């Protein structure tokens, strides 16, 4: 019941709030924990906004993870940087790994010796010498006519057959002959040209080198 | 009225049951952590290259059959002393500048004190050539067998465009040269 001296909204005077005798003293207002202890229902925190943000972040990460056509995750491959602005695209991948494998041990960066390899579509094809003096050398027996790497050519011919078979089933315009070369920055020019010539011999005539874009 | 909640999920006491979002939040956070750990934040690009010419100094494969003008056949030699440049009919090296036995554009120390190729001078030299041959955009690169890939890429960058963004010779062909 309102006090006669306090207006509660009849318009005769400014609203003064609830009269003190009707308010519960502050020390008797139950806290959230007290409400829980008393068995009263506790409102759960509003998670809707947090769910919205988390879902958007998740969708973005799934999209960026799924749409990258080239994935360079080998710790032994250090790509060179370039000002090239050409975008990546789907193609057969030939990777030449480097002589040093980077890693993390107990939070510190480490470098360990690695035997360079030639890898085609994630499958190792040929191991190089790994000799510290000349890690990228290979025996002459692996070469045909001094330029063509036999195992790489065989593997690329298999990849070409598979791509042609897929292209004939899916009617996507046929085999395009594109190959992306992902090479460690220490790869010598001699090995690079052998890889390019071998790719050409296997039917892959469009070469692209993968690099890290420099922010311009 | 528009904001009145549906009583579909109301219990016997009339309170609306909120769906329990905590397990779904747990799953989402775990998925985010997994995707972040698998994502490599590297901005990859590509450089298109034409087929290598065996024997060195060959013409590029981008020639149009109807083009009957004499080819420049601009070639950049990456030697262990620096850059030499060749075109149809002439090779420019240190002897051209009165420095026999040296490269046209010799190497110079970089910021780390190591001898590196002089990409800026190469870029300026190519800009001069471009002014005389504005329609030519092909260049052939041939290198010493031990020249590393990163230096070849930087040479390609220096030959692609000038410092002020003018296009130079973006169509690169590799030449096998003398393969060791």
Task: Give an overview in words.
The complex is a heterodimer of chains A (216) and B (180). The radius of gyration of chain A is 34 Å and the shape is elongated. Helices cover 28% and strands 21% of the residues of chain A. Chain A has helices at 32-37, 48-67, 150-170, 189-201; strands at 81-82, 92-96, 100-105, 108-113, 117-120, 123-127, 143-144, 148-149, 178-183, 206-213. Chain A has a six-stranded mixed beta sheet with strand order 1-10-9-2-5-6, covered by helices on one side. Chain A is α/β, with parallel strands linked by helices. Chain A has a domain at 73-213. Chain B has 180 residues and is an alpha/beta fold. Chain B is built from three helices and nine strands. In chain B, strands 1, 2, 3, 4, 5, 8 and 9 form a seven-stranded mixed beta sheet that branches. In chain B, strands 6-7 form a two-stranded antiparallel ribbon. In chain B, helix 2 runs parallel beside helix 3 (149-160). The longest helix of chain B has 17 residues, at 22-38. Chain B is elongated and about 100 Å long.
β content of chain A, as a range? 15-25%
Number of helices of chain A: 4
* DSSP summary, beta strand count of chain A: 10
Ends distance of chain A: 75 Å
Q: Number of domains in the coordinates of chain B? A: 1
Our estimate of the beta-strand percent of chain B is 15-25%
Percent helix of chain B, as a range, is: 10-25%
Radius of gyration of chain A: 34 Å
- Global mean pLDDT of chain B: 79
Query: Largest contact between protein chains?
Result: A-B, 57 and 48 residues
Order of strands, main sheet of chain A, comes to 1-10-9-2-5-6
Q: Summarize the biggest pleated sheet of chain A.
A: 6 strands, mixed
Sheet/helix structural class of chain B: alpha/beta
- Topology of chain A as a string of helices (H) and strands (E): HHEEEEEEEEHEHE
Kindly provide the radius of gyration of chain B, computed on alpha-carbon positions and rounded to a whole number of angstroms. 30 Å
The proportion of residues forming helix of chain A, as a percent range, comes to 25-40%
């Amino acid at each position: 019941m309102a006090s006669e001296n306090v207006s509660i909204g009849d318009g005769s005077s400014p609203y003064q709030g609830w009269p003190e005798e009707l308010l519960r003293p502050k020390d008797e207002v139950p806290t959230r924990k007290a409400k829980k202890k008393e068995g009263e229902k506790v409102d759960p925190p509003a998670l809707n906004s947090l769910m919205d943000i988390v879902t958007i972040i998740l969708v973005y990460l799934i999209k960026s993870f799924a749409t990258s056509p080239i994935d360079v995750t080998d710790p032994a491959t250090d790509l060179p940087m370039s000002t090239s602005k050409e975008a990546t695209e789907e193609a057969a991948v030939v990777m030449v790994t480097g002589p040093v494998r980077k890693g993390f041990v107990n939070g510190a960066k480490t470098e360990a010796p690695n035997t360079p390899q030639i890898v085609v579509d994630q499958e190792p094809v040929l191991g190089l010498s790994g000799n510290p003096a000349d890690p990228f050398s290979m025996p002459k027996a692996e070469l045909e006519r001094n330029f063509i790497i036999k195992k790489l050519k065989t593997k690329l011919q298999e990849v070409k057959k598979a791509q042609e078979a897929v292209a004939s089933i899916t009617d996507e315009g046929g085999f395009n002959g594109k190959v992306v070369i992902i090479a460690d920055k220490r790869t010598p020019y001699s090995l690079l040209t052998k890889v390019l010539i071998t790719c050409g011999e296997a039917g892959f005539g469009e070469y692209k080198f993968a690099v890290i874009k420099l922010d311009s | 009225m528009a904001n009145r909640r549906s009583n579909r999920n109301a219990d016997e006491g009339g309170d609306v049951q909120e769906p329990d979002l905590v397990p779904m939040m747990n799953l989402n956070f775990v998925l985010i952590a997994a995707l972040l750990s698998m994502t490599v934040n590297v901005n990859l690009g590509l450089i298109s290259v034409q087929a290598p010419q065996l024997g060195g100094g060959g013409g590029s494969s981008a020639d149009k059959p109807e083009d009957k003008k004499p080819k420049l056949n601009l070639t950049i030699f990456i030697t262990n002393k620096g850059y030499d440049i060749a075109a149809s009919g002439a090779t420019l090296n240190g002897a051209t500048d009165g420095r026999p036995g040296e490269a046209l554009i010799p190497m110079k120390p970089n910021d780390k004190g190591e001898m590196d190729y002089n990409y800026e001078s190469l870029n300026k030299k190519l800009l001069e050539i471009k002014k005389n041959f504005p329609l030519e955009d092909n260049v052939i690169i041939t290198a010493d067998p031990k020249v590393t890939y990163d230096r070849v890429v930087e040479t390609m960058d220096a030959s692609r465009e000038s410092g002020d963004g003018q296009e130079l010779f973006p169509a690169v062909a590799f030449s096998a040269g003398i393969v060791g």
